[in-house]
Amino acid sequence: MPYILLLLISFLFLGCTQTPKPLTHKLPNNCDVYAMKQGKCIKEKRLSSALEAYDVIFLGDHHDAKVLHKKYAQLLSQIQKDGYRIHLANEWFTPKDNGLLYQYTHHKIDDNNFSKMVDFNKTIGYEYESFAPLYRAVRDGGGNLYGINLTTDERYNISDDNVSAMRADALAFYYSLDTNVSAHRQLLDPFLQHCHAPKEGERKEACIERIYKVQVAWDAKMGLEVAKLAKKVLWTPKDKLVVFIGAMHVEYGLGATMRFARHSNRSFVTLSAMQKPQTELDHAMADFVLFYK
C-alpha cells in the first residue's frame, strides 16, 4: 500500500510540473474583430464604439499592408464622426518634425510637398500613398499629427554608448533604460539571433545585446513621448490620442505600451491586426485584433 501511495504522489507531482501550453483563443469563421477581454468576435462597425472609453488608443501596424492602413483610416474617420478630435502620434516621425506636421494638418502644405519635404519613400522605406489615408483622415477631421521616435543620431549614440555626444536630457534617458524585462527579451529573442549589422570584430553576443538595447530605447522613447503628449493634448473628454506604431511595439503589452504605463495613468487600449484566415489567437496578444485580407 505505501508503494502505491508513493507512486500516485509521484504521478501527481510530475503532472503538476509539466510546462503548460500557451493559451489560445479558437476563432470562428468570418471574424471581423476579436475582442480579447470579452472572448468573442464583434462586427467591425462596432469597433469605434468599443474603443470609446479609452483616452489613448495604440494601433499596431503591419507596415507593408495597404489594406490595413485603409481600415485604420476608416476607423479614425468614424471616431471623428462620433464627435472626437484625434491626435495621431506616429513612429515614422520625431518630435523635431512636429512643426512640419503642424503645417500639413493645417493645410499649409499639401500631400505632395509634405512627402517630398519628409523624403518619405527614402527615409521611411515605404510608399507614402500607403499611409496617406491615415494622415488625410486626421487632417480632414481637424486633428493633429505628432512624432514620437528617436532621431537617427540618437539611435547611433545609444548603440555605440557614445555618452560624450549626448546632451543632459539624452544622457538621463540613456541611463534610465531598463533592459531587464525578461518577458520582453523572450518575445524578441527569435528576431535578435541574426545580428544584421555587426561591427568589425564584434562578437555575435555583443551585437545582439547592442541591438536589444536600441530596441528597448525605441520603445522607451515612444512610451515617454506618448505620456508627454497625453498631458499636453488630452484636455477634454472629446480628445483622443491615437498611437500608430509597429505591431511588435504593441502586442503582449511589453513594448511601448508598457513603457507608457510607467509614466502615465491614462486609460489605454491596444488594437493589433492579423491577416485572414486565422483559426486561433494567442491570449493577451492585444485587447482587440482586427482581421484583414
What does this structure look like?
With 293 residues, the protein is α/β, with parallel strands linked by helices. The chain has a single domain, classed as Rossmann fold (3-Layer(aba) Sandwich). The chain has helices at 2-16, 47-50, 66-81, 98-105, 111-118, 120-123, 128-140, 152-159, 168-176, 182-192, 204-233, 256-261, and strands spanning 24-26, 33-35, 40-42, 56-61, 85-90, 144-147, 239-246, 268-275, 280-282, 288-292. It has an 8-stranded mixed beta sheet with strand order 3-2-10-8-4-7-5-6, sandwiched between helices. Strand 2 (33-35) and strand 3 (40-42) form a beta hairpin. Helix 3 packs parallel to helix 7 (128-140). The longest helix has 30 residues, at 204-233. It is globular. The model is unreliable at 5-14 (pLDDT under 50).
